[in-house]
Specification:
This protein has 26 helices and 28 strands. By secondary structure, the protein is of the alpha+beta class. The protein binds one DNA strand through strand 5, helix 3 and helix 5.
Length: 959
DNA sequence: GCAAGGTC
């Protein structure tokens, strides 16, 4: 009889395969590893009688590592790690499994590999082959390919054995080697570069701190930082919208403007006035239709993690731990699966039947099985199948509640561990306190088990249920050519929502309307709101980002998130939302400033693409390894050359350490000109701790003379060229490089500029972009204050000093609302009282922010070419106001507006209607119309306040 | 001391 050694990827699969093939007629014995049993039985393969031994590994049997002489961190230059020899070996904790395989393989004729049918599984198959062939060269080796652990598939796989796929395995070999080389080189490089140079306050002992870099963890960090910067750089923008209500016997209907909202106040007012003048509403459309809300797809790992985070605020790591325990105890199926569709051969009814007796959802399960109820529906297909595991579903009934804490060994194990730990650390505590804590732990953990089990069961029952049905009514009306709509919904059948309590679908009544009907609105208001930034990334958002970009696998995503927390790169708040720490932000900022996208997902995506090419035979492993490692080594060497960028970014957030040898000071600090204020020292080029460039007197703090440079400056280098016109000289010209995306169209990225006052380009850029837009976009107040800080003669940009508080949208000051902005009043007042000569550059109007005289200038940007504005003559002050906005009395603006914006298509403009009620008053007193259509009181022009006309006819606006 | 991928 042929002896066949069968090896599965994990003990559970070995058990399932053996049970199915033997029809449960098998013997079990121990191997050398306590987890990996050996099952024995007889079975016929293609008519050949076989004695089957089925055992398992636990995932990868081998690891890839550098040879010993490269393993110490100081043993070599990290750049050498791109070429240092690596080896694959069986680590200490897997030697038991290796010995079992060797012992059994010696006695067998065939080796059949039952590893998971994905690339990693194929690679593990080759690891198993290597070990087995090492002791028995005559083995016949075959691969079993199965798509689910169900009877038909497993028997089919056993009768149709194939050859292992070398390409699949090669792809994984390449990935492992690339991950190791990139990860180890960058981790050693940035740890050794930064750890001793800065006081990194997040770490208890920063001498042992590891600043790891990994091709998965860094893009994950990148997602968190990018969202954080997006929030920091968000500029609130005020918008206006018209709302209207209609009261009838059946109740109140609220109509919203089908334009959404406009960002232009005057346009909004004109449209609003047209509505007020002819307020009769005509119903143009009444549409009624049936709407379905579908149940979710069957549950994959990522969906389980996302939903547990959303519904229970469990971290993905917690979820996977609890799911693993539920799986080990037999309550749910294998929890690491990409599959979100059930095989047609899965017996779904039997799973539902098991739950008929449940005290809470049992009656729902009964209704599902009752053909007369019509509740059953075959689950939809989510389109993913890992060919190894079914979607996560319940496999054993539990009534839950009190039984969890009694019958689950995990809880007892945890309690044991915790008791030992607490007793050893806090031996002075009374037993009573320890018991109380244990009870709490027992309760919390059983609570998690219970909630996750409930989610898996309810999700499964929802999947096999009919969608919820609603009747939706949409009513559209027309007022003076403007269209408004309102909608209502009545739930006709809740169906799956009866069991899936985590989702809701609200009823909202709308009174009956008929086409052609006319009415006078109960209210017609012009409301305003401001755009708001998107929220910080939640754990579910982060998982979605990773999933979409292909960062990590279903089984490892939670590990990458946990790694960021462990490395102090990010923190998570009570709402499961992530913010970068100073450390995380500084690292991303450093690489960003180098111009590398090492913190973006593209690198991993490219690697994944190459792996795919290897796995289908289009490229060889050697070819991909060579090109990828060559590129990464070049990138690494470049990063070493540009390490000053990392140091500068770190310096923004952290104090230099005493251990620092100080050899990395930036090349800044050269003289630009003699200081005209103190006439003693020189002005020098500096980059301050917020990352902004400035030229300050080296006599600081005695002399506080300073010239701030535009926010978009990326690089600034002093040249030998001298300005011909500025005094006192010599004033050396500076070669600037601006960040392309931050300067308006029409400006060059490269600019040879003078800080002496003659440079129109610099002046315009400061007026338009400010001196700290980069920091507004990414910075936060530093936690420490270096002793050699830059001069601060002038008020710094208020947004910089209080970046988390929403500033006024007109003057960027905090402490007052935009509606109460003093700059709007003072700017107008100044123009009137000083009788200004409106010629370019001639004015004595004091700036309303700092008191320095303003000058009248002409904009030269694409959007506003030729438009005039007043700006403060102090280069350190950002104040400016458009001339035309003063003339017509509307608000001064700091940036060009877009007249009409689609809030749905532009995420930066998502926003609420924060101040609708207060701002209704800005539309004059005409916020209500009477039943006869006459405005109640106080009609007047919204621009100049004259009651004799409306704004669209206001003489101050001209034609 | 470093990666990411399996798994108990």
């Amino acid at each position: 009889m042929i002896k066949v050694l069968n090896v599965a990827e994990k003990p559970s699969v070995a058990k399932s395969v053996a049970t199915i093939l033997s029809r449960n007629q098998l013997r079990v014995r121990d191997g050398r590893s306590r987890y990996n049993k050996i099952f024995e039985f007889n079975y016929s393969i293609n008519g050949q009688q076989c004695h089957m031994l089925v055992t398992s590994v636990t995932g990868h049997l081998m690891e890839v590592e550098f040879e010993d002489r490269f393993r110490k961190w100081h043993s070599c230059d990290p750049a050498d790690l791109y070429t240092a020899p690596v080896r694959k070996y069986v680590p200490e904790d897997k030697l038991d499994i290796k010995r079992t395989l060797e012992e059994e393989a010696r006695r067998c004729h065939w080796l059949v590999l039952w590893l998971d049918c994905d690339r990693e599984g194929e690679n593990i198959a080759f690891e198993v082959m290597e070990v087995c062939k090492g002791v028995n060269r005559n083995l016949t080796i075959r691969r079993a390919r199965f798509s689910a652990l169900i009877e038909r598939d497993i028997h089919e796989a056993a009768q149709n054995l194939i050859a292992p796929n070398q390409w699949f395995s090669d792809a994984v070999d390449a990935r492992q080697e690339i991950d190791l080389r990139i990860g180890a080189s960058f981790t050693r490089f940035q740890t050794m570069l930064l750890r001793d140079r800065f006081v990194i306050d997040s770490a208890q002992d920063d001498r042992n701190l590891v600043l790891s870099y990994g091709p998965c963890q860094f893009p994950t960090l990148g997602f968190v930082v990018e969202r954080y910067w997006e929030i920091q750089s968000h500029e609130p923008e005020e918008f206006w919208t018209i709302n209207c209500t209609h009261r009838s016997d059946e109740g109140l209907a609220s109509f919203s403007w089908m334009r959404g909202h406009l960002f232009d106040y005057t346009s909004s007012v004109i449209l609003y006035e047209m509505c007020v003048e002819e307020p009769t509403a005509t119903v143009t459309k009444v549409q009624q239709q049936e709407k379905l809300k579908y149940p979710p797809y069957p549950l994959s790992t990522i969906e389980l993690e996302k939903r547990a985070s959303r519904y229970f605020r469990m971290s993905s790591e917690q979820t996977m731990k609890v799911a693993e325990d539920l799986y080990q105890a037999g309550f749910i199926s294998y929890p690491r699966t990409e599959t979100d569709s059930f095989s047609s051969r899965t017996d779904l009814h039997t799973i539902v039947q098991e739950h008929q007796e449940h005290p809470v959802w049992g009656s729902y399960a009964q209704r599902l099985l009752d053909p007369g109820a019509g509740l059953w529906r075959n689950p939809s297909n989510g389109g993913h199948d890992d060919k190894a595991h079914p979607p996560i579903h319940p496999t054993k009934f539990s009534a839950g509640e009190s039984r969890w804490s009694q019958d689950h060994h995990v809880v007892h194990f945890l309690i044991l561990v915790s008791t030992c730990a607490w007793q050893s650390f806090f031996s002075f505590w009374s037993n009573l306190v320890i018991m109380a804590l244990n009870e709490f732990l027992k309760f919390s953990y059983s609570h998690f088990l219970q909630r996750l089990y409930e989610l898996v069961v309810r999700h499964f029952l929802a999947c096999v249920s009919q969608p919820a049905v609603g009747a939706e009514t949409v009513v559209e009306i027309d007022i003076a050519g403007e269209r408004f709509s309102a909608s209502g919904r009545v739930i006709l059948a809740k169906n799956y929502l009866d069991v899936y309590r985590f989702e809701s679908w609200g009823d909202s009544m709308i009174p009956t309307h008929v086409q052609g009907q006319q009415f006078i609105p109960a209210t017609l208001t012009l409301d305003s709101g401001v755009t708001r930034p998107p929220p910080l990334l939640s754990e579910a958002d982060l998982l979605s980002c990773m999933d979409k970009a292909g960062i990590g696998t279903d089984a490892t995503m939670h590990d990458h998130i946990k790694k960021l927390l462990d490395r102090f790169y990010v923190t998570k708040d009570a709402n499961t939302r992530f913010s970068p720490t100073n450390l995380g932000e500084a690292l991303v900022m450093g690489y960003d400033d180098m111009g590398y996208e090492l913190w973006k997902p593209n690198l991993r995506s490219l690697m994944e693409y190459d792996m795919k090419e290897v796995s289908v035979g289009n490229k060889s492993k050697a070819e991909v390894l060579a090109t990828c490692l060559q590129q990464m080594k070049a990138c690494f060497l470049d990063a070493k050359v540009n390490k000053v960028k990392l140091l500068e970014a770190m310096a923004i957030f952290f104090n230099r350490s005493d251990r620092s040898n100080g050899d990395d000071s930036s090349a800044l600090g050269e003289n630009v000109r003699p200081c005209g204020l103190c006439q003693e020292a020189n002005m020098v080029l500096k980059k301050n701790r917020d990352g902004n460039f400035m030229v300050g007197c080296s006599g600081f703090p005695q002399c506080r003379n300073a010239v701030w440079l535009p926010g978009p400056v990326l690089e600034a280098t002093i040249t030998n060229n001298i300005c011909n016109s500025c005094t006192p000289g010599p004033v050396y010209l500076i070669q600037f490089k601006f960040r392309q995306l931050e300067i308006p169209p029409g400006f060059n990225v490269n600019h040879l500029g003078c800080i002496g006052g003659c440079d129109e380009t610099l002046r315009q850029l400061i007026e338009i972009c400010g001196t700290g837009s980069r920091v507004q976009a990414r910075g936060r107040p530093p936690t420490t204050t270096p002793s050699n800080g830059p001069p601060t003669t002038t008020p710094s940009n208020p947004q910089r000093s209080n970046s988390r508080q929403a500033p006024c949208i007109y003057c960027y000051q905090t402490g007052h609302a935009s509606t109460d902005c003093p700059s709007r009043i003072s700017a107008t007042r100044h123009v009137q009282s000083h009788g200004m000569n409106q010629q370019n550059g001639e004015s004595s109007i004091p700036c309303s922010t700092c008191g320095t005289p303003c000058v009248l200038r002409t904009a030269n940007t694409a959007n506003n070419r030729g438009r005039k504005f007043y700006s403060c003559s102090s280069q350190a002050c950002n104040f400016f106001v458009w001339e035309d906005s003063l003339n017509n009395g509307s608000a001064p603006r700091s940036a060009p507006r877009q007249n009409i914006s689609s809030s749905a298509s532009n995420p930066s403009r998502r926003g609420g209607r924060g101040r609708g009620v207060q701002n209704a008053g800005r539309a004059g007193d005409v916020t209500f119309v009477s039943a006869t259509g006459e405005p109640i009181s106080g009609r007047r022009c919204f621009v100049c306040g004259d009651p004799s006309h409306f704004a669209n006819a206001c003489p101050s606006r001209g034609s």
